[in-house]
Amino acid sequence: MTTPTTALLQKHFDLALDAPDGIKKLRELILTLAMQGKLVSQDPADQTAIELLKEIEAEKKRLVKEGKIKAPKSLPEIKPEHLPYEVPKGWEWVKLGIIATIQTGKKDVNEGHEDGSFPFFSCAMDPLRSNDYSFDCEALLLPGNGANVGQVTYYKGKFEAYQRTYVIFDFYFDYAIYIEKVLLALFRKSVEGKQYGSAINYIKMGNLTDFLVPLPPLLEQKRIVTKIDQLMALCDALESQKIARSQKILDVHTAAMHQLLDSSSASDRLDVQNFLFSRFGELYGIKENVTELRKAILQLAVMGKLVPQDPKDQPASELLKEIEAEKKRLVKEGKIKAPKPLPEIKPAEVPYEVPKGWEWVRFFRINMVKSELVAATDFPNEMQVAPDSIEKGRGKILFH
Fold this sequence. Notes:
Oligomer: single chain
Shape: elongated
Strand content: 5-15%
Strand order of the largest sheet: 2-6-3
Mean pLDDT: 77
Low-confidence stretches: 105-132, 162-166, 369-383, 388-400
Number of strands: 11
Number of helices: 12
Helix content: 40-55%
């Protein structure tokens, strides 16, 4: 691996823990470097990709001669302007249809290679769903439609298929795992967001046969796959570390919220607030904590713990008297009906103690909307009234 590449990866590993999509971007970078021939060093002693392609052509001719495959159709020549980027010496750009047979049709689950493997792409495959079609396979699986279109997986083991229509994908050389990395790095991006049909995304055969593959020498393919797997394992460990760190931050924030809400001392609440402010960037880089903070702010407000009380304020009891006087006036003028008396609030109904000057009241005691227009279930049974001035007969209220 070149020194600049090592430095680039180290930089991104250092940043991945803090950036929201850091690990995802790091995985993409690893695959991108691999496809550009920058992940591992080239060895001039390796057999070149040209020699590998010659062997593939010889293998195709043998299979055609033995009647195992039909003579493949010739594909259009790759023109220089079609190449996405320059590849290292010894590599070649090649169309996927050149290095593999890709065909549609029904294939009996009992058919396959002599070793029992089934190298295929599936256009409608979901390993989580099953029926009687279950068999051992070693394959590249590519959902050809739906939400996971283009998401290739190298699958080895007991495969359970829920339908029997496949796109068969069989390589002319023995190393298919590198092609999985190519498809993960390049192919999915080429089909994402493209819709061929009126309902769901799916892959056209031409998308596969004409897809350009950066083909390294076979030995370099193996080195690339080994290095990718090593780095992806580090990404997995980094992801676990990030999850553990996020959980710790969530736990710390939850404890702080409990202390903030449960404390009866303004001084203690101020200490918690100072702690939150001092670690604001760390704590609120996690969206769940932002949601909990919003809830806590509202809860503190309705508990009378968000701002200090001013003994000069008109108490809620006086506000309630003015509300009662306003109701009587409206009844007298025929603008509303005389409200039915509401049951007294019992101590057991009160969720928590409110500050001096506040009162717990039932919602319809201060509501002037006609009761037949609003279902009682649309509103809480009781609410708090904080001291405030009355403007045009309406006081500000805090719902609980």
